[in-house]
Amino acid sequence: MTMKRFYAMCCVLATMTIAWAQGPNNSGTYYKNADGKSGQTLKTALFNIIKNHKKIGYDNLYEAYKKTDTRPDGYVRDWYSNATNYRHGTDKGGTYSAEGDCYNREHSLPQSWFESGGNADYLKCDVVHVIPTDGYVNNRRSNYPLGEVRSATYSSKNGYSKLGMSKVNGYSGTVFEPNDEIKGDMARIYFYVVTCYEGNVTKWSENATASAVFNGQTYQPFKDWYYNMLLEWSRMDPVDEVEIARNNAVYGVQNNRNPFVDYPGLEDYVWGDKKNEPFSYDNYNTTVAVRTPTFSPDGGTYTSPQSVTISCATAGAAIYYTTDGSTPTVSSTKYTAPVTVSESLTLKAIAVKDDDKSNVATASYTIKDEGDDPTPTGDGIFKKVTSTSDLESGKRYLIVYEDDEAKALMRLDGKAGSGSVTVNSSSIDMNQSGNQAMVLTLQKVGNYWTIKGSDGNFMALTSNSNTLNSSTTAAENTAKWTISVSSDGTASITNVEYSNRQLQYNASSDMFRCYTGSQKDVAIYKESSTATGITATKTGKKSNVLYDLQGRRQSKNAAKRGVYIVNGQKFIVK
Fold first, then answer.
1. How many CB atoms lie within 10 A of CB 410?
2. Residue 228 CA: distances (Å) to CA of 170, 299, 485, 568
3. pLDDT in tens, 313-363
4. Which residues contact 546 (CB under 8 A, 6 or more apart)?
């Protein structure tokens, strides 16, 4: 072989190698530094690749939309409405009173969720997630989480976007549902956001609304219900040419890309079935041998037995499961029919096909009696909290001031009740002479708790007077407290804004207050259940508790045909 021919062949081989070692969508070697990574390491590698993008500025987003969000007919691509024809620049911003008045800049991750300063300044104007939408519909979306609506309380024209209570297992609050044709796009935007802003995500869970979505963790920051929903959206609405074109345009505007668009199913390599497999930026494999099983309904707290279906997206795969929390194998129970969960337990399952096995799926179920709102009539059973680990988000609690055998429940206005209080081993009997007892709901927000009274107000300090009273209202994300409980049940409740000031009782003013000084004993009691005897039924409007003829409390949703007692009277279920 002549030197000339040898040189020519080397050039051909080099050209072939360069052509092969390229990412998708003309991304070249953009993702090269993520090559060979997997799971958490892969996510951090992607973070380092995409984080250093150009900060285009909030005011320049409208100009960027001309490149990233223009429909084939030249009008603005409206993400929340299919009934608008907005002209770039001309119909932007301004006032609106109805759908179709103007378009604006919508933070798909609400701006109230992320902190100001630092990388948040980039997130505020990141064109990947700040999208053009109808101003009025965007206003109706507010800062509610994305989700799937059970029954819409608001719909945009043609039912394109909806607002209402969530039907997704794991969350029952208000959600905003985008149209099916962009659900996958929105999911991949959220995957991008938690990757590009990896250093910020732990703070988002401190926001009251965002805490429904984020868990305060860095690697997999979504709560299970949200993560599973986004995964389903991404699979249901795969990447299309419109999304690819937008991703390329974004790169031209701010010099970074969304890897979850360039590599469909990349979320499986980061968090899912393929998180233990190395990622190849130039030889990407989108197939998963055996998908992880899924449970329906998802794990959670229920007031009646659940029939749990276990399924696998891989055709022909066999499913094996356990109910004692142990890791399933092919020797475990084979799934053939829905599993009846009538008591609290943890389900684990794997799917197997040929020689391939999925990751282990886990879901924990808590089955408890359906309870009424606590009332100061004495029929609730409250048990003394002796450890912070006993505190549960969403549970109802009573704060009791105890001093020299004298006990008084804290009223909603902060004053101690004038009546008598008897604290038994498993219950609290209240005689408040008509005064409403202080019934609290605790909700975990990051590392702190918010404390909400039965009137819906959050407990907060009144300016510098440190007085707790009914006129004190606070946003859920600002009324933060730390709670510590000693082994004897004595509680210390400290406001975050005034770290040296605790919830205390001032005998001279007959008020519970937050101030420095010697601490009085304050105990916390958690509602664990309600009385189960027929004699404990009430006649108030919040009663309506169902009991069988043996005095056992029944779930209203699962009652079978028969005769029951409700409010002391016979009740027949046909």
1. 25
2. 10, 12, 35, 44
3. 788 999 999 998 888 999 999 999 999 998 888 899 999 999 888 878 888
4. 553, 554, 555, 556, 559, 564, 565, 566, 571
Q: φ and ψ at 196, to 5 degrees?
A: -65, -30
Alpha-carbon span 157 to 150, nearest angstrom = 18
| CA quadruple 380, 386, 387, 390: dihedral, nearest 10 | -20
Q: pLDDT digit string (tens) for 328-339? A: 999 999 999 999
What's the sign of the alpha-carbon dihedral 254, 256, 261, 266?
negative
CB 507 within 8 A of CB 474: no
Please provide residue 572's backbone torsions phi and psi, each rounded to the nearest 5 degrees: -110, 130
User: Beta partners for 441?
Assistant: 396, 452
Q: How far apart are CA 181 and CA 185, in angstroms?
A: 8
Half-sphere exposure of 392 (CA within 13 A, CB side): 10
Q: Which residues pair with 363 in a beta bridge?
A: 347
Instruction: For 289, list phi and psi in degrees, rounded to 5.
Output: -60, -55
Please, are residues 459 and 481 in contact by the beta-carbon 8 Å criterion? Answer: yes
For the full predicted model, state whether its pTM sits above 0.85.
no
Give residue 276's identity as a one-letter amino acid code.
N
**Beta pairing, strands 420-423 & 553-554:** unpaired
Q: What is the pLDDT of residues 478-530, one digit of tens each?
A: 667 777 777 767 777 776 665 555 555 444 444 444 433 344 456 777 776 54
* CA-only gyration radius of the chain, Å: 29
Q: What is the DSSP string of 75-111?
A: SB--SS-SS--PPTTTSBSS--SSTTS-EEEEESS-G
Secondary structure tally for the chain: helices H, strands E: 11, 30
Apex 231 CA angle, 284 and 216, nearest 5: 105
Name the nearest CA neighbour of 275 among 37, 559, 509, 25. 37
